[in-house]
Amino acid sequence: MVKVITYGTYDLLHFGHIRLLERAKALGDYLIVGVTSDAYDKTRGKINNQQSLMERIAAVRATGIADEIIVEEYEGQKIDDIRRLGVDIFTVGSDWVGHFDYLNEYCKVVYLPRTEGISSSEIRAEKRKLIIGTIGSENLCKKFIREMRYVNGVEYKECDETLDGVDAVYVASLPQQRYSDVKRALLSGKHVICESPISTKKDQYQELLSLANEKRLILTDAIKTAYSTAYSRLLVVAKSGRIGDIVSVDTVCTSLIDGAGESGADLAKKQNSICAWGPTALLPIFQLLGTQYKSKTIVTKIINDELNYDGFTKIDLLFDNAVASAKIAKAAKAEGELIITGTKGYIYVPAPWWKTDYFEVRFENPTDNKRYFYQLDGEGIRYEIVAFAKAVEKKEGYYYISKDVSEAIVSIIDDYDEKKYIRIS
Ligand code: CTP
């Protein structure tokens, strides 16, 4: 029996895929199809799949051509599969000519002519595009627009005050300005992805949220860390019980780029430390321990009274079974690490933890330690845009950052705004 193997993503299965599978099968007697996992595709830079692994497998199965379907999960797996399954022929489309010649050592390699004029990318691109405009900080908007280019199905369009011609907006104005910008966008029927905090006042945030719900629009925080693979995995590991019960979550986020020594006029154009870093620093705390803390202390060092501009702030939260601290600064410096303390071990994420591709789970006995690496492209912004576009399509957008978490973040910033803090000089 001649065994043939082929691999692919098979997103939105099309005629080109079916033709390839038929010809692959005709090369032998038994066809094995390797369907790439979402995580593996992400590491290959394929972030745009519209269908999940299970949907893609179901589509391949429905063709009735494959005798066996396996999942491709890691680089180098092809050699393992060929040896393990006793494969005689490896085949893929001619877009890969030369790429898999190294497999000749293990089996015969055949490149089949690719069907002209069709691909998953083209089908995705033909779907109606989500047109996104931007409001606010030139630097943040530039980054967002640059990352949009990596995402199928979205397109940037410059927009004016009227927001005409766009379906959605990315809001990156100063925190005090966001409420009116977001409100204007929602009232014009636009979906919104907004830098966090969405507002500095809890009641304003609630008003925006009900407006979004009423108009069936997506309103979501743009905290890029929430979309990074390493961060999502560390949440899962922390919640799985691997480090026992979580007793403390401690985050540090600092960037000594402005603040101390600057004039009031310059500071007025910038976000204070709590708005710039608070949302990111609080994110893992609320996502791991929930938002129902029993008490909170905010200690701050103000560098401009008139603007209520903090150079350094520490937020301590007390939960039923745990404590948490967030140390943030734009006019002080510390190691930007994240430590999750558990009763059996701890998770350590080195600086800068908010744009990490790596974390470690550590135990008393260092031989039990485990390191995790996940690729991070575009600081997480392009994954954030993919998630936003999907949320708009499915009309459901709170998978990565729940409304409770958004509100808890706004609530702390509101308290700070109301000067419910202890000052150090
Ligand atoms: N294929 C083909 N003809 C096409 C498209 C794909 O023969 N018109 C083959 C590829 O060469 C590969 C297999 O089908 O062997 C799976 O390809 P996949 O990457 O999943 O499909 P694409 O349509 O090329 O996807 P994308 O546009 O996302 O790259």
Structural summary, described in words:
It is a single chain. Helix 7 links the parallel strand 8 (168-172) and strand 9 (191-195). The protein is built from 13 helices and 19 strands. Helix 7 packs parallel to helix 8 (202-214) and helix 11 crosses helix 13 (403-417). The strands form three sheets. It has a nine-stranded mixed sheet, covered by helices on one side. A five-stranded parallel sheet has the order 3-2-1-4-5, sandwiched between helices. The chain starts with a strand and ends with a strand. The protein has helices at residues 15-26, 38-43, 53-63, 77-85, 120-126, 138-148, 175-187, 202-214, 229-239, 264-267, 273-289, 381-394, 403-417, and strands spanning 3-8, 30-36, 68-72, 89-93, 108-112, 130-136, 154-156, 168-172, 191-195, 219-222, 246-254, 295-304, 309-318, 323-329, 338-342, 346-349, 358-362, 370-373, 422-423. The mean pLDDT is 94. With 425 residues, it is an alpha/beta fold. It has three domains: 3-118, Rossmann fold (3-Layer(aba) Sandwich); 128-224, Rossmann fold, CATH 3.40.50; 229-375 and 395-424, Dihydrodipicolinate Reductase, domain 2, CATH 3.30.360. The longest helix has 17 residues, at 273-289. Helices cover 34% and strands 25% of the residues. The structure holds cytidine-5'-triphosphate.
